[in-house]
Amino acid sequence: MFYYVLKYVILGPLLRLAFRPRIEGLEHVPESGAAIVSGNHLSFADHFLMPAIIKRRITFLAKAEYFTGPGIKGRLTAAFFRSAGQIPVDRSGKDAGQAAIREGLGVLSKDELLGIYPEGTRSHDGRLYKGKVGVAVMALRAGVPVIPCAMIGTFEAQPPGKVIPRIHPVAIRFGKPLDFSRYAGMENEKAILRAVTDEIMYAILGLSEQEYVDRYAADVKAEEAAAKAASAKSRRFTRVPRR
C-alpha cells in the first residue's frame, strides 16, 4: 500500500515537478504479465524516477548496503527502500549472483515487472559499461521479454557524491521489447548468455547515446581508485621537507 502512496502522493509528484522528465516509448512497457526493464544506471535518482513514471509497480534488485545502515538513519533508509519496492541483494561472495537471480525469478514468477541495471553499479563517469549476464539468465529462464530503458540527464542532475540533486533536464526512453525465445533452453551456455546481454546493452546504448566501454564498471572503478591511492602515496614520499 505504501508503495502507491509514495508513488502517487509523496515522491512521484515531487520528482515530476522537480525534474519534469520527458518520457518516450512508455507504450513499450506491457500493461500486464512478467517482463524485465533493463536500463543504464547513472545516478542514485534513477531508483525513483523510473518507478515514478511507470504505471505498474516495478521491483528493483538493490545492493544490501542500502538496508543495513547503522542507527536511526539506517533504519529509515531501509524502510524507505523496502517501501519503494526494492529487494536487498548481497553482492559480496561467490554466490551473490545466484542470490540475485533467485530473487529476480521470484518477482517474475508473480507476473510482475523486474527492474535491472546490467552494469551492476552506477557509472562513475557517465559512460555505459559492459553488462553482466545475470539479466540474460533471468530472461531465458523465465521466458520473458526485456524492455531496454535509458536514463538521460540524471548523471548531471545527481553525479556520484552529490546528495541533493540539482535541477537539470531529464529524459527517460523505453525501447521495443526484446524477444529471446529463440534461445529457450540455452540459459547454461556462456556464449548465448554473453550474446543476449550484449544485445540488451546495445539496445540501451542506442537509446542513451552514451560512450560505451567494453569493460565492467566495477573493475574500472577499482583500477582508478588504486591508481589514485598510489599517486597520493607517491606524493607523500616525494614531498620536499620544509627548511
Description:
The chain has 243 residues and is an alpha/beta fold. The protein is 44% helix and 15% strand. The chain has a 7-stranded mixed beta sheet, sandwiched between helices. Strands 6-9 form a two-stranded parallel sheet. Helix 3 (71-83) links the parallel strand 3 (58-63) and strand 4. The N and C termini lie far apart (68 Å). The mean pLDDT is 87.
Short note summarizing the structure:
This protein is α/β, with parallel strands linked by helices.
The count of DSSP E runs of length 2 or more, i.e. the number of strands, is 9
Described by the principal axes of the CA atoms, the overall outline is: globular
Q: Which strand order do you get reading across the main beta sheet?
A: 1-8-7-2-5-3-4
- Proportion in β-strands: 15-25%
Q: What oligomeric state do these chains adopt?
A: single chain
Percent of residues in helices comes to 40-55%
Question: What string, H for helix and E for strand, traces the elements in order?
Answer: HEEHEHEHEEHEHEHEH
Radius of gyration: 19 Å
Sheet with the most strands? 7 strands, mixed
Structural class category: alpha/beta
In whole angstroms, the N-to-C terminal distance is 68 Å
Keywords:
243 residues; seven-stranded mixed β-sheet; two-stranded parallel sheet
What is the topological layout?
Blueprint: H1 2-19, E1 22-24, E2 35-39, H2 46-53, E3 58-63, H3 71-83, E4 86-89, H4 96-108, E5 113-116, E6 128-129, H5 134-142, E7 146-152, H6 154-157, E8 171-174, H7 190-208, E9 212-213, H8 217-238
Parallel strand pairs: 1-8, 2-5, 2-7, 3-4, 3-5, 6-9
Antiparallel strand pairs: 7-8
